[in-house]
Amino acid sequence: MAEPIAKREPPLRPEILRQTRDVSGLGAVERPLTAAERLMNQAGVRRSLILIGLAAAWQLYGQYVGNNLILPTFFEVLEALWEVSRSGELPDRVLTSLRVLTIGYTAGIALAAVLTTLAVSTRLGADLLSTLTAMFNPLPAIALLPLALLWFGLGVGSLVFVLIHSVLWAVALNTHSGFSSVPETLRMAGQNMGLRGIPFVARILVPAAFPSILTGLKIGWAFAWRTLIAAELVFGVSSRSGGLGWFIFEKRNQLETASVFAGLLAVIVIGLVVESVVFRSIERRTVRRWGMQR
Predict the structure, then answer these.
(1) How far apart, in Å, are the Cα atoms of 33 and each of 26, 40, 41?
(2) Residue 53 DSSP class
(3) For residue 168, which of 139, 126, 210, 208 has the smallest C-alpha distance?
(4) Alpha-carbon gap, residue 241 to 163, rounded angstroms
(5) In this structure, is residue 77 part of a structural domain?
(6) Would residue 40 count as lying in a domain?
(7) Cα–Cα distance measured from residue 227 to residue 232, given in angstroms and rounded to the nearest whole number
(8) What is the C-alpha to C-alpha distance for residues 190 and 151, in angstroms, rounded to an integer?
(9) Which of 35, 78, 44 is nearest to 58 (CA)?
């Protein structure tokens, strides 16, 4: 028999003792933030500084050009914006555009909800949504406006039709993509609870897919807003809408460039307000509160 291997003791390593350094003279490890650092940590302050910088660059370049017919300065645009707002002309046009936008946006969301509900409930509905999306999503909404004028006449109906087209496919695509990414565990939990059809969609799929749904709503809003302004620029007076787009077109014909920029500034401000106030409030109270988004 082979002799057993002798038991070996582990090597002894010398202990190393190090003296700690006196760090009392290094100052505070954590210092309080200065007022400027606290301000720069606020997202609203940083964005405001960006806007102020853009306005200053606009003002300086407008003074350099020296021709208010081509490029008025920022202060001239603000003056024109104040005049058309004080007279009530611009607020009336803005309200007209927002009224039409609300109708088209709401109708587009409702149709998108119907299509996505069918898509997650039946195979035929899924095939229908994918086919319609592949056909109509690449089609520009403004290209349908001449047909809308033939079908719905000179009125708000033609504008609402192109708005529905611009909203429907973006919302439906993002919503269906969110529904498809819902984990199978949640789906089985809902089925075990006896949920089918609309209750299953409302109580299981919508909360789980809400980040994608909210993204679709944002994209649909942006598409609808720019489609409405473009449609009013071309056919606003024909449809008797008299909205913000037609206000810009009228001022361009009258060579009031400062008022044209005032109308464009109103378009930008409304977009910023909707994005920063409406959608960000919804996002803060839903997906961020639920821990679904950083």
Answers:
(1) 18, 11, 10
(2) H
(3) 139
(4) 14
(5) yes
(6) no
(7) 9
(8) 44
(9) 78
* Helix, coil or strand: residue 152: helix
Give the tens place of pLDDT for each residue, 177-221.
Answer: 888 887 888 778 777 777 777 777 777 777 888 888 888 899 999
Q: What CA–CA distance (Å, rounded) separates 192 from 106?
A: 33
Give the whole-angstrom CA distance, residue 265 versus residue 261: 6
Give the number of domains in the chain.
1
The secondary structure of the chain in percent helix, strand, coil, rounded to multiples of 5, reads: 75, 0, 25
Predicted TM-score (pTM) of this structure: 0.77
The predicted structure's pLDDT at residue 110: 92
CA distance 117 to 125: 8
CATH of residue 193's domain is 1.10.3720.10
Q: Work out the pLDDT band at 137, boundaries 50, 70, 90.
A: confident
